[in-house]
Each structure stands twice: as structure tokens, then as C-alpha cells.
Amino acid sequence: LRLDEKVRVVVFKSEVKGVFCAGADLKERAKMDDAEVGHFVKRLRNLMDEIAALPVPTIAAIDGYALGGGLELALACDLRVAASSAKMGLIETTRGLLPGAGGTQRLPRCVGIGLAKELIFTGRQIDGQQAFSMGLVNHTVPQNNEGDAAYQRALTLAKEILPQAPFAVKMGKLAINRGMEVDIASGMAIEGMCYAQNIPTRDRQEGMAAFREKRPPQFTGK
After folding, report:
1. What fold is seen in the domain 166-213?
2. Of residues 23, 68, 70, 72, which has the active-site annotation?
């Protein structure tokens, strides 16, 4: 996906009705020794980092349970859409663990330190509406009979992104992600570098031409 220039947006959804991702298989985990657990979680953390580093926008469609590593997967995405009936939580402390695939870092960056600590310390599960009210998800929707309401809303959101200039969207994502990790002066410099890469693109010229000619732009990602 990272290398496929035709990919504009990636939507993560489950094929299991009622479950986005239920997290680790604790029965499987119980059979591992300490070293194996450490190696397993390190690989999981690396996977989440790779998802977060995808150059195109990513959307998690949470139509059911997103618990532990399942919520960490959703947090690794840029945007999250949840059914109001979905259940989310970093429940690791209820099993004698702590989030180990990015949860302790991505949740506070998403909802703030205080709320993140409360959710992680208590292992509480929240529904889609509660998640929306605290900014954990971008949109919440009532679940439908098919059980894919969040996925359908995620597709609508993806279709809003698709017509926009692909390279500009990629540079926007890069500028935001890198800029959030540094002071604002450094972030401004990062934005400037990303903008400079966008200036010579054909899409920028097309955007200007379409505006002058009062027509929809036809972006190619070049």
C-alpha cells in the first residue's frame, strides 16, 4: 500500500460482525514465556508504527468492539468513525498489563493527558457516542441492520478526500504528523519544507488553472 501510487485512502474494517478488533488472544499469550511476549509486543508496536506511517490518509471503521490492541490499531489511523453502539477501551490494566502497541502515546495525543490517564488507569470501556464527545473518534453513527454503519460513513469520508490533490494531501499528513512532535517554530519549518515540495507539482498548476477556468480540477498526483 505504501508504494502503490493508485492508493489514495485506506479504510480499515473488520469482516467479523460486531467486532472491529478484540485485541490480543490472551490464551495464546499465556503459552508464551517472558522473552516471547516481549518480542511479540515489539513486532505489534512496529506494525502500528508502519500503519501510522502510511503516506495516505487512513480511516478506522469501528463497527463493534475495539479493545486493547484493537483500539491501538484504530489510534494508529488518521481518522476514526464509530457506530454509536461500538465499545472501545484500552483494557490492559484489567489483565495485569499496560498498553504496549502505542496506546500510552497515541491516546493522550488524541484526547489529552487527563482523559487518557483515566481511561488507561481504569481500563474502562466506552461507547461510540462517548468516544465522539471526547474527540477519540471523528464521527459516530447509529448502527444499521447490516452492522456496517461505521464502514459506510468511513467510505463517505474517504470519498470526500479522493477528489483532492493526492500529493498535497500526503504532504499535509506529513506536516501535521511531524509538526505535532516538535515546538511550533520547528513545526513551521517542517510545513515550509512540505510546501516547497508541493510548489513544482502539476497538481498545483491544475488547481490554479481550474480556479481561473471555473471548472473542477482533475488531479493526477503528479
Report:
1. Lyase 2-enoyl-coa Hydratase; Chain  A, domain 2 (1.10.12)
2. 72
